[in-house]
Amino acid sequence: MALSFDTAPDSSAGVRYAIIASIGTACIHATMRWVDLEPFLIAFWRNMLCLVLVLPLVTLRGAWHIGPGALPWHALRGIANTAAMVFLIMGLDRLPFAEATALTFATPAFVLVGSAIFLREHASLARWLAAGLGLAGVLIIAPPGAGWLGSGGMLIVLSAALFAAAFIIGKTQTLFASDLSILFYLYLILTIFCTPLAASVWSWPDATAFAALGLIAILSILAHYAGIVALRRADASLVGLFDYLRLLWAAMIGLTIFGETPDLATMIGSTLIVSAALLPIALDRQKWMGRIG
Q1: What is the pLDDT of residue 147?
Q2: What pTM was estimated for this model as a whole?
Q3: Could you tell me the residue range of the domain that residue 88 belongs to?
């Protein structure tokens, strides 16, 4: 018998969970600054620890049971995520960090286009304007340098496209898999794919690094769960726009924790990014609030 899950639209709840997911992701990246390990090792341990943490609940609820044809979608998302991570790491080695970070925010724009083509979502003019506004804000904060059109820049853009593909696949998964099942298979497949990458640069983390990895794993589970619920409740084209807020949270963390004072460009860009997230909520409000009532 086919599985059935509650996918009733509730864009208001979807927006709230999307904001939580963006905060969680920013906290993950901040925590990673304290981990002195190769990126492949960080990815491996994060996914392995996430898998260990969700496994008891998966066992209790039997969440490994999936509907017919679901496993290929789980595998496809794992492949897209792993490939995106590899291209991102390769690109980071070829570009200044600020430029590479700016280019990763091409993902919401790719999500918007992909959701219209593959999910047949109707993206309003407000969402298209918001995507452009958010991207403009990112480029003001960290404008790409002269070399970004080279191999490094293209690798980052390809990574952003693959992360968008994984995002769209995640929206599809909500139609036939439970939240816990999606989490379980995501971490299982990512752990499998990351194992040979980690083995190529293997070293054991010390106690401090392992504690930070544990915190990253907990934050990852919370952020991923919030992202899954957001996709279950709202259009991918709307949820994807809130990834722009990640840069705002990162700037706030940098100020309060790392003592990094934002310059004028950061403040202007952050204002545009916040406006990008608020624009579709303000202009599409009657449309998506109508779905709740």
Answers
A1: 59
A2: 0.76
A3: 11-290
